[in-house]
Amino acid sequence: MDERVGLGTIAREWGRIGVVGFGGPPAHILLLRRLCVERRGWLGAAEFEDGIAATNLLPGPASTQLAIFTAWRLRGPAGALVGGVSFIAPGLALILLLSALFLAGDPPHWVLGAAAGAGAAVPAVALQAATALVPASRQRAGGGAGRLRWYGYLLAGALAALLTGPWLVLLLVATGITEIAVRRSGDGGPGRPGGLLPLLLPAASAVGGLGALAWVAFKVGALSYGGGFVIIPLMQHDAVQRYHWMTDAQFLNAVALGQVTPGPVVQTVAVVGYAAAGVAGGLLAAAVAFAPSFLFVLFGAAHFDRLRADWRVQDFLTGAGPAVIGAIAGSAIPLGLALHSWWQAGVLTLALLWLLALRRGVVPCLLAAGALGALAVTAGLPLP
């Protein structure tokens, strides 16, 4: 790249992607590629693909890290900060505004109906997110004993999502370390050096209030291998059962809002923060959740090539990957059990057909489910 890209240009272009980036990581990657590779020629195609591969090795929201990384490639640390904030800010502002509407003390009935309808579709979205990850992860595991371990990790992740709540992250780390140990012992082939992937897992915060909120957001941003939908089992137990910041129905609304707003899906955590402590809580939760992504890029981007080549990292992800998929799929059960009105079951059935049978988009599904919910309540059907 010969031209020096201005910070104003980065703010404008990354902000535009943050505004129009509906559809989650696939949409974000496509928009970034069109901008950086096809339209402006700032990065080569191979360089951009390497960025995707490297950021997918990291915990947390991969498409956000890719946005930060591509801006870093253009203007270093200043570009990373400007690009990342510009990418995150539009969706964050919108989701906080919607939180104020959907979590208000006495919102209109049609708003509650729209929320209940969109929330009814969320278990189907979780299943769709999990099934989309299966082929690549299963292929990565290989055959024979590796494939059997893959199914074991998958089952363990599903059970952990149902039974362990906020401690799910320990299971994800354990499966990754187990795979490293197994392959080191000979299953992965001779000639590999010793040593385990160094991992730092902070002790759980015992404080309440904003300290507890910061801890929940930190787990989402720094310890959620697989990004995206794996944040749901990480947050649900804390937000609903442990700290009582939200009801089950409100948590479903939070997940739906994270899906239908542009920008990173991880911004769901801002809704939880808003429920816990208003606008300040939403901003705190977002800042803590996204801070690791900035730090990973600012301090690690120069070492991404070495990270990709490290066999321990690859083996860790081979073990943690199916556990993540199992956790995402397993989260659909408590999400489904949180539905209370009979008509929500009909909305969920339609969502399953739309997403899993017809393989259509998530955002139209949630918008249509919300419209059905608003119509149902307007017609006199009971609210959950």
UniProtKB/TrEMBL annotation:
A Pfam family that the UniProt record links to this protein: Chromate_transp
Alphabetical UniProt keywords: Cell membrane, Membrane, Transmembrane, Transmembrane helix
Chief localisation class: membrane
UniProt membrane topology term: Multi-pass membrane protein
Top-level taxon in the UniProt lineage: Bacteria
InterPro entries: Chr_Tranpt_l_chain (IPR014047), CHR_Transporter (IPR052518), Chromate_transpt (IPR003370)
Family: Belongs to the chromate ion transporter (CHR) (TC 2.A.51) family.
Protein name per the record: Chromate efflux transporter
Organism: Kitasatospora cinereorecta
Lineage: Bacteria, Bacillati, Actinomycetota, Actinomycetes, Kitasatosporales
